Amino acid sequence: MMSPISAISAIFFVLLATLFFKIAIPPLNFPRNIPTIPFYVIFLPVFFKMDQVELYEKYLREPMEKYGAVKAFFGSRWNILVSRPEFLAQVFKDENTFAKSGNQKKIPYSVIATYTGDNVISAHGDIWKLYRTSLNHSLQRFNEAPLWKNAKKFCQLICNQVDVASGSTKVGPLIQRLTLDNISEVTLGFDFGTLNQEKSSLHEHLLLIKKQIFHPLFLTFPFLDLFPIPMRKEAFKNVESFRKILVERVRQNMIENYQFEQTDFAASNLIRSYNAEKINYTQLTDNIVILLVAGHENPQLLITTCLYLLAKYKSTWQQDIWEECKRIVDGDSKGLSELPLLNSFIFEAVRMYPPLNTIINRKTSRLCKLGHDIVIPKDTYVGYNNFGANHYRKSWGSTADEFQPQRWGSDIDTILKTWREKKTTAVLSSFHGGRRACLGEKLALVELRVTIFEVLKQFKLSLSPSWEEKMTPGGPLCPLNLELTCERRT
Ligand code: HEM
Ligand SMILES: *[C@@H]1O[C@H](CO)[C@@H](O)[C@H](O)[C@H]1NC(C)=O
Ligand SMILES: *[C@@H]1O[C@H](CO)[C@@H](O)[C@H](O)[C@H]1NC(C)=O
Ligand SMILES: *[C@@H]1O[C@H](CO)[C@@H](O)[C@H](O)[C@H]1NC(C)=O
């Protein structure tokens, strides 16, 4: 007979062992002919000073380049991560087999799923089509005036903020304010107001929930949100109230706008769909939130990366782009879109540091094959690693890790043609591609060109001597706590 105590410890031991094996070893039905990345790899940046680029180089590059796909532990489960263009193209194309299955399905109990819900990015099938048709048109044709106006405000704020003694400034928080104001004015139809006053209540609220959502512990182990942890209960409450306030704010503005029917904001189209009872209030909220999230976070990351690269290549690219930009007048977005140096620089930045690095939101709907011989069981999460794809040596050659805007071509037609080609063949996957391609690419690129133009008009940028050159350790990819020296042009 076992004593009750030893019985309990035996059960405990078995549970612990099961948990360990679930984490340490991929499921047995996963394909055997691709390598496994050790499970502890994703935890390394938590314990060591290591960024995602170093992590990729050390643990992922070799297996990924050799096999094109690997088994990797992420978000409390084992997944298959893909980087080889042929595999990526297959995943992007075969929507029915590699079906979108975002956080609302993967971890519905989590704070992050409560935040973004069932939106255009994560939905599948007919519901996705419905959302996409509500948004597509207005996200391709938008009012650029707020982008120009806000870029100027942004530069003014840099001026005010630069430390007189060192000329140095941390640009991160300012970039966030800029991108928030832009996206809310351009797609949601109201001014977030973060550039006019440092403290806007909606902005404070957003900063608070972002901290709670991107908490490393809960991001790595989302299942913890199943437990009644007071801190997380608070997070749920904050997220719920943010969603409510945001949507009411958007609707209020639309209702007050006597020309509502003529407005063509992405949000006005969503509201029209809601008024026509095509989508319900939850769906309206989910999509307004995702417009705000995708619309400000990704450009925020990319602007940060571009300012970093401009500062890093100060005497070459920054100087040359400024010479090229000089002849453009304010408001001429078209002029900016035709500049070879500026555009190849931006495309190369998108390639080098894809703002969204690892995306795992597709689940196989049946037993299937990736390529010729990688057999993937049903209900397996399949994701893509953009850094891997964009640095794949077979695609980009031996200079894949070097920053070389000239690889895109020297005249604008060649540059744009190369850009389209790399995207359609999934050789460059930063904006996804195919039917599920990013709807905000055009908007993001306009925003980026205008911001770079306005910043270079006023400042010469260099990296602050005190800034340590590192990228973020995990999640969204951009320089970590970037600090720049901004010298006024005279
Ligand atoms: C630098 C800027 C941006 C990057 C790198 C980026 C990247 C991406 C990526 C990788 C996806 C596919 C996500 C997936 O696989 O699940 C996506 C989808 C999407 N993005 Fe962006 N994005 C950017 C800016 C924007 C902006 C400014 C908006 C505007 C609101 C936006 C709206 C969307 C939407 C609506 C989708 C979903 C498309 C669909 O599934 O039908 N994005 N984006
Ligand atoms: C979206 O809009 C563009 C241009 O307005 C159009 O070419 C495209 O076919 C539309 N549909 C989708 C699903 O992207
Ligand atoms: C907002 O618009 C301004 C002005 O065009 C631009 O400088 C800035 O980069 C934009 N912000 C974002 C986040 O795109
Ligand atoms: C809204 O519609 C979705 C999709 O049809 C449905 O799953 C959800 O329960 C609805 N929510 C409400 C509050 O009616």
Layout of strands and helices, then pairs:
Elements: H1 4-24, H2 44-47, H3 52-67, E1 69-74, E2 77-82, H4 85-93, E3 98-100, H5 103-106, H6 111-116, H7 125-140, H8 145-161, E4 168-170, H9 172-188, H10 201-213, H11 216-220, H12 230-256, H13 266-275, H14 281-312, H15 314-325, H16 333-337, H17 340-352, E5 358-364, E6 368-370, E7 374-376, E8 381-385, H18 386-390, H19 393-396, H20 412-424, H21 441-458, E9 459-463, E10 483-488
Parallel strand pairs: 2-8
Antiparallel strand pairs: 1-2, 3-5, 4-10, 5-8, 6-7, 9-10
Helix pairs in contact: 7-13, 8-9, 8-21, 9-14, 10-12, 12-14, 13-14, 14-17, 14-21, 17-20
One 2-acetamido-2-deoxy-beta-D-glucopyranose is lined by residues 147-148, 150-151, 154, 178-179, 182, 299-300, 303, 447, 450-451, 454.
How does this structure look, described?
- With 490 residues, this protein is of the alpha+beta class.
- The protein has 21 helices and ten strands.
- It has a five-stranded mixed beta sheet. A three-stranded antiparallel beta sheet has the order 4-10-9.
- The chain is globular.
- The structure holds protoporphyrin IX containing FE (HEM) and 2-acetamido-2-deoxy-beta-D-glucopyranose (3 copies).
Question: What key phrases describe this protein's structure?
Answer:
five-stranded mixed beta sheet, 10% strand, alpha+beta, three-stranded antiparallel beta sheet, 54% helix, binds 2-acetamido-2-deoxy-beta-D-glucopyranose, globular, binds protoporphyrin IX containing FE, Uridine Diphospho-n-acetylenolpyruvylglucosamine Reductase, domain 2
